[in-house]
Specification:
Distance between the termini of chain B: 11 Å
Helix content of chain A: 40-55%
CATH superfamily of the domain at 11-243 in chain A: P-loop containing nucleotide triphosphate hydrolases
CATH class of chain B: Alpha Beta
Strand order of the largest sheet of chain A: 5-4-6-7-3-8-9-10-11
Largest interface: A-B, 25 and 34 residues
Low-confidence stretches of chain A: 1-9, 242-246
Helix content of chain B: 25-40%
Oligomer: heterodimer
Order of helices and strands of chain B: EHEHEEH
Structural class of chain A: alpha/beta
Amino acid sequence: MSKGERTSRIQPVPKLPTGITGLDEITGGGLPTNRVSLIYGPSGAGKTILGMQFLIHGAVNCDDPGVFIAFEETVDELAADFTSFGYDVKGLISQKRLFIDHIDLKIDRNKIVGDYDLQGLLARLKHAIKAVGAKRVFIDSIGTLFNTKLDPGIVRDALEKLFTYLKECGMTVVLSATSEGEIFEHGLGRSLSDCIIQLGMRVEENISRRFVRIIKYRGSGHGMDEFPFLIFDSGILVLPITSVIMEYKVSRERVSSGLSALDDMLNGGYFRGSGILISGEPGTGKTSAAAQLASSTCQKGERCLYFSLEESSDQLIRNMGSIGLDLSPFVRKGLLQIHAMRPTMYGLEMHLVTMQRMMAEFKPHAVIIDPVSNLPAVGSIPEVRSMLSRLIYFMKANHVTAVFTALMTGDIPETQLGISSFMDTWIQLTNHQYGGELTRLLSVVKSRGMAHSNQQREFTMSDDGIRLVDVYVGPQGILTGSARAVQQVKDEIASDSRRKQMKENDLDFENVRRRSKGQMEDLRIEVERARLRMERLNRELEFAEDAEVLGRKRLGRARQGKTAAAKPRKKK
Amino acid sequence: MAARSWHLVIYIGDGSSSRLALESARSLCDEHLKGRCTLEVIDINENPELAYKHNILILPTLVRRLPLPVMKLVGASPDLDLLARALDIK
C-alpha cells in the first residue's frame, strides 16, 4: 500500500453542517460538501423543514448563503411557515443571504405546441446562485417536477445538466423526493448516490413516530438505525440512540427526602443528582412520598419540576394538602412548576424532548416524574427504558435529583419497566395485611454508595403529614396498624403496672426506714438513760465508800483521842 | 378592429427548438398580424433574471402579452395556423 493511497482512504469526506441537532451527529458532521444529497420521504415527513434548516443554518451561522428552488410552495407561504419556527425568511431574503425561487409548474397540455426543453430551470438557478453568492442549494421537490405534463425524458435531461452544473460550481445540494423509486425509475440514481437519507413516519397504536435513516453515505461511516426525530417549534431534532456514556461527575452532597425518618434510613438523605425510584402498589403513597422532595427542595429555595402524568396540577395540590403538605406557596413563588400531561398527549420522544427542554429552561434542582409506569401507554417497554435511560443521563449530567414513581402490581419484585437498574436508590412501598387491616410499609430496597437501613418502617399518612413509624416485630411477623397500636397499649399497661409496683416498693422501704429510725431513737434514749443511771449509781457507790473511809478514820481518831482528821491523812 | 395592437414576447435559449420557435414567431407577426404586432425576443441565457421575474421554465415560450388575457404557448412548431389558433388570432 502506497502512502498516497493510505492518505486518500483516511481523508474524511468534507461535510457541511445542517445545524439540525442530532442529524449532524449521526452523519458525522453533516451533508457531503459539493455533492447532491437526496432526502426522500412521504408528504409531511419533514423534508422541506430539513432543507430549509440546512439553508438557514448556512445563511445565519456559516456565512453560506443559500438558494431554495421551490416547486410546491410560494415564497410567501414558505416565509409564513418558517416564521412559526422562528426563522426570519423575508429578512434573510432582503439581506441577500437567502434566495427563494418559486417555480410554478402549472402547465396546460393544450398550450404545448411542439418541442421544448427546460433551459429556464438552469437559467433561473444560475441567476439565484449569482444573486446571493450561494454555497448551498435546496430543491423541493423533484417528484413535483416529474408529476407534471412535462415529458419525463426532458425533465431528466434538464436535471442531469443541473446536477453537473451544481457540482461544477461547488454547490452543496439537498434534493427532496417522495420516494427513492422516483429517482431511480427516472435514471437519476447514478447522479444521486453520494448521500441518501430517508425520512419516515410510522403509526403504531395510534401514535405516530417520525424517524430518519441514512441509507447511503459514500465515503463516510454512518449509523444504519432508524433514529427517531421530532419536529417542534424550532425545527427538527434528531435523537440518536447512542450508548449512554457515563462521564458525568457525581456529587457527595446529600439532599433531604423531605422525610427525616427516611433521611435517617438513608444515613442522611438522597445524593444530589441521583435517581430515585419509589415503587409501590396502588394507594401506597408513592405520590405523597415523592412530593416530599418537592417540598423540601423548595423550602431550601431551590427549584423543583414536577411532571404529573396522572393528576392535574390542582388535583395534586389538593391531594397533598390533605396530608398537610401545602405546595401552593412554592408554586406562587415560582420554585415549583407542575406540568400535568397525559402520557398519550405526545409520543414518547416528544415527552423526552419536552421534559428536557423544560429542564433546560427552568434549571430545576429536583425533578419528579409521577408515574413513569404510565409511559408504556405511548411506547413499548424497551422504548420507554431507552427514553428513561437517556432522561436519567441528562439529569445526572446536570446534577438534578430525580424521583420516579412506578406502579407495581402483584408480587413482582421488579417494576414492569425493569428500570430499577438505572436507579441509585430504590424505595419500595408495600401493602401489609394483618389482622384484617391494610397498612403500608416502606423499605429501602437499595441505595448505591451509602449505608442504609434494612428495616421496614410503617408509613402512615394523616392530615398532620407523613410519619414513618418503627414496626413491631412479633412472633407472627411484623405488627402494623391496629395490631401495632394494640401492642402499644398492652405495653403501656404493662409498663404502668411496673411503675406502680416500684412506687409501692419505694413506700414500703420508706416505711421500714422510718420505723427503724424511730426504734433507733428509742434505743438511743434508753442507752442514755442507762448511762445516766450507771453514773448515778457509781457516784452513790463512791460516796458510800468515802463515807465508810471517813467513818473508819474518825473512829480511829476517836479511839486515839484526836479530833482533827486532816493532818493524819497527809502523813499517810 | 384593425387598430388592435398586439404585443408578443418570445423567450428563447440555445438549441434548435428555440431557433425554430423564433422563426415561427417572426413569420406569425409578418403573415397573421402584419403591421399591428410588436415582437419582443428575450434570450434567457443573456437575461436569466427575466426567466425568474416572468416565471419562465420551459423554452421556447411564446407569450401573448396584449391584447389581454395573457396567453402562454410552449414548444416550437412550424405550423403558423396552429399557432394563430392557439393565440386566438383572427
